[in-house]
From TrEMBL:
Protein name as annotated: DUF354 domain-containing protein
InterPro entries, per database record: DUF354
């Protein structure tokens, strides 16, 4: 089987890493078409995944539109040369367009209802869509499959990911005090237009609250002022989740990283601008705290509430949650085999 995988965001690297390894191990040919967005290409390099960068993330409406045109044409050329049996992406805008033109099946996975523009230009063309069961947005009629759980269970399912404490220690874990991980984002994606994140004063208040009882590790897509730079995570990109897994809690405005922490059994507080169905499902399950219209006061109050719950209770809740969820890595492989033009090669 010949497979094109589209990677346009750092989270896509984690989502497709195990499926790519499975495909390679059984002798399938894989072409990864990447995008220079935050640390996406760095992660691919650190994981040793060969890839072809096609575009650099645009900025603003005009920049993103220009990039999409460039990416469509570059993807079309790559697909014509590689001749895949199936294509996969998270979101899958370019592969949906190119798949329609070339009659190569395109399979999209997605979980964010707030990306209305992206879905309007993707769903009419995609061959099949896979979403979490909690997804509340419109989907293609007759071309949608719903899966229990969250997309993070492709990389972080216990079948494939085991936190390594030695790695966490090498990248900054303090073994003698509680550790906290904080994440702030740039708000430049197509579904982020017109939105803004925490102010520097809100970030400082969150750090001060957490630092009062432990050590703070800060990950930021934005440049940091001198007083905040001292908290910056400086380890390899592909080691950060070993550190998060050893933390007492996660606090941030990244829905993806909050979800990652939650499935690792780490109490997660999410305070972004949009609350997709999976963020609400995790909150209802008891793995995540969601804070809307966040202020310094509301965030610190939510942190206190979250830290009042014993972490052992969170881990037990996570374990019960995972019992009802599939390994999404296996689901991705099954989806590719189901929709490929030619039958998959049998494993030997």
């Amino acid at each position: 089987m010949r497979v094109v995988v589209e990677v346009v965001h750092p989270a896509d690297v984690l989502f497709f890493k195990r499926p790519i390894e499975t495909l390679h191990a059984r002798g399938d040919a894989v072409l990864v078409l990447s995008r220079k967005k935050d640390v996406a290409c760095d992660l691919l390099d650190e994981f040793g995944i060969p890839h072809t960068p096609l575009t650099t993330a645009g900025s603003g409406t005009v920049g993103l539109a220009r990039e999409l045109v460039q990416r469509d044409f570059a993807t079309l050329g790559a697909v014509r040369r590689f001749k895949p049996d199936v294509m996969a992406g998270f979101g899958g805008v370019a592969i949906s367009h190119v798949g329609k033109l070339t009659r190569v099946p395109s399979v999209s996975f997605y979980d964010s209802e707030n990306a209305a523009l992206q879905t309007r230009i993707t769903w009419p063309f995609i061959s099949h869509l896979y979403v979490p069961r909690s997804y509340r947005g419109p989907t293609p009629v007759g071309r949608t499959t719903r899966l229990p759980g969250v997309k993070e269970l492709s990389f972080f399912h216990p079948n494939g990911f085991r936190p390594n404490r030695e790695t966490a220690l090498r990248v900054g874990l303090d073994p003698d005090r509680p550790n906290y991980f904080v994440r702030i984002v740039e708000w430049r994606a197509n579904h982020d237009l017109g939105k803004a994140g925490w102010t520097p004063d809100v970030l400082r208040a969150v750090i001060a609250r957490l630092e009062a009882s432990g050590v703070v590790h800060l990950s930021s897509e934005l440049p940091l002022s001198d007083d905040l730079a001292q908290y910056a995570y400086k380890g390899p990109k592909n080691a950060v989740h070993h550190l998060i897994a050893a933390c007492r809690a996660f606090v941030g405005e990244s829905a993806t990283m909050a979800s990652e922490a939650a499935v690792l059994g780490v109490p997660a507080l999410y305070a972004g601008r949009d609350f997709p169905g999976y963020t609400r499902e995790l909150a209802e399950t008891g793995l995540q705290w969601n804070v809307e219209n966040a202020s310094a006061g509301s965030l610190c109050a939510a942190i206190d509430e979250m830290l009042a719950v014993p972490q052992s209770d969170i881990v037990a809740t996570r374990d019960r949650y995972l019992e009802s969820c599939p390994d999404w890595s296996e689901a991705i492989i099954e989806a590719l085999e189901r929709h490929a033009k030619r039958p998959a090669r049998s494993a030997t």
